[in-house]
Write a structure and sequence with these properties.
By secondary structure, the chain is an alpha/beta fold. Helix content is 37%, strand content 26%. The radius of gyration is 24 Å and the shape is elongated. Bound molecules: 1,4-dihydronicotinamide adenine dinucleotide (NAI), the ligand N[C@@H](CC=O)C(=O)O and sodium ion (NA). The site of the ligand N[C@@H](CC=O)C(=O)O has 11 residues, from helix 8. Its EC number is 1.1.1.3.
Length: 439
């Protein structure tokens, strides 16, 4: 059988990695896919650099629409990133009857509902394993491997850049800027690294996983997003002293508030007990913990960023599309795991309604009765205390009191924090970091 023809949009970190792995493992891949996968055309900004990578056998063009509109191309592989141009290209490819493989989580989190609807109508596939947790086959696990289960929650480290930054800062004492630069040089960071640092990239990925896990449309706009830019080194140290590690987690979970079903969708720095496997996931590695009713807990660990780990997922999708291209669309695995007509209308909960535990750091003037005031405010709000760490007074007789609470609702903590901040003995703002035992 003749090889299937792929057109690559973009030949940067992931594009070049995809090309190299396809070349290196072409025979193995052909044996799995049932026919060869040939890169017939690439579109890039820097033509010279691209020609050095792909040689003279592959047509290199500057205009990505030349790939998308080329009748000889069977599969368009979108690896340029961003929202607008990528959306136009992918919709045009679909309109032209081409299958699409993309690593672009930003595109899918924002425009996935529209793109999947268009693909369904046209009978083509849009595959996106590389978009979530890079090389870890988490989309396949959630969508196919766990399809017998009612999934309860999905939580994990899904941004390699921020995990790399937190690990290197803690282990090597390096400053934020230096480690970010390294993450960029290693090809982990997004073109705009604020997407990584501010938690947006993790929220894109979480939105996709949430849709697949619970059978709901993608709702990126309802995600609660906090990144690591406000994290202070002192909290990383106090967390360690209390037996925890701070990780940027994405968490999505079914929950019931006041008798009504809802879904949590949140990304924020989180204390995790130091003994948990997730607490020990370091560098650019990702890990996703899925809780499901039949199988129980399963954990997926691996490289979430970088050229070849991401290429591994892109090519797995190419193989899937090659195998399934001729199957009738209704017999294929649905894009979002559930049949498009079966998506549920369960609301994403406002952040005030979520239940979790909290790390609170209060800087106080070291006076008699300060601790009593704090415990009274928490008790009045119905918040019970799990652990307290009080440091020796330092400069200007100020000291830090760190409190770990048991589970409570975010809105009760917000109210308690407001009262603590209004005490005359409280210095500055209360630092609040959420805590998940992930047990
Ligand atoms: N780098 C990584 O570890 C991972 C990246 N991704 C996603 O993969 C996609 C690509 O990421 P990278 O390879 O890291 O980016 P990159 O910046 O290294 O490469 C982007 C490529 O797209 C081309 N390009 C950009 N705008 C273009 C335009 N207007 N016309 C033609 N070509 C254009 C550039 O020339 C370059 O070849 C993004 O959606 C990213 O979020 C997903 C998982 C991991
Ligand atoms: N910038 C992302 C790349 C992979 O998705 C990350 O750091 O995880
Ligand atoms: Na993946």
């Amino acid at each position: 059988m003749k090889p299937i023809k792929a057109g690559l949009l973009g030949l940067g970190t992931v594009g070049a990695g995809t090309y190299h792995v396809l070349e290196r493992n072409q025979e193995e891949i052909r044996r799995r896919a049932g026919r060869g996968i040939e890169v017939a055309m690439v579109s890039v900004r820097n033509l010279e650099r691209a020609r050095r990578i792909v040689g003279s056998d592959v047509e290199v063009v500057a205009d990505p629409f030349a790939v998308v509109n080329n009748p000889d191309i069977d599969i368009v592989v979108e690896l340029i990133g961003g929202y607008d141009l990528a959306r136009e290209l992918v919709l045009q490819a679909i309109a032209n009857g081409k299958h699409v493989v993309t690593a672009n989580k930003a595109l899918l989190a924002l425009h996935g509902n529209e793109i999947f609807e268009a693909a369904q109508a046209k009978g083509v596939m849009v595959a996106f394993e590389a978009a979530v947790a890079g090389g870890i086959p988490i989309i396949k696990a959630l969508r196919e491997g766990l399809s017998a289960n009612r999934i309860e929650s999905v939580a994990g480290i899904i941004n390699g850049t921020t995990n790399f930054i937190l690990s290197e800062m803690r282990d090597k004492g390096l400053d934020f800027g230096t480690v970010l630069k390294q993450a960029q040089e290693l090809g982990y960071a997004e073109a705009d690294p604020t997407f990584d640092i501010e938690g947006v990239d993790a929220a894109h990925k979480l939105t996709i996983m949430s849709a697949i896990a619970f059978g709901i449309p993608m709702q990126f706009g309802s995600a609660h997003i906090e990144g690591i830019s406000q994290l202070q080194a002192v909290d990383l140290r106090y967390a360690e002293q209390l037996g925890y590690r701070i990780k940027l987690l994405g968490i999505t979970r079914r929950t019931t508030v006041d008798g009504k079903d809802g879904i949590e969708l949140r990304v924020h720095p989180t204390l995790v007990p130091g003994a948990r496997l997730i607490a020990n996931v370091e560098g650019a590695m990702n890990a996703v913990l899925v809780q499901a009713d039949a199988v129980g807990a399963t954990l997926y660990y691996g490289k979430g960023a970088g050229a070849e780990p991401t290429a591994s997922a892109v090519i797995a999708d190419l193989v899937d599309v090659t195998r399934l291209a001729t199957a009738d669309p209704y017999s294929r695995v649905p894009h979002l795991a559930f049949q498009p007509t079966e998506l549920a209308d369960v609301p994403i909960l406002p952040m005030e309604e979520i239940r979790t535990s909290y790390y609170l750091r209060v800087t106080v003037q070291d006076q008699l009765g300060v601790m009593a005031d704090l415990t009274r405010i928490l008790a009045d709000a119905g918040i019970s205390i799990d652990a307290v760490l009080q440091k020796e007074p330092g400069e200007k007789a100020r000291t830090d009191i760190v409190i770990i609470t048991h589970q409570t609702r975010e809105k009760y903590v917000n109210a308690a924090i407001a009262k603590i901040e209004s005490l005359a003995t409280t210095v500055g703002k209360v630092v609040r970091i959420r805590l998940e035992s992930l047990g």
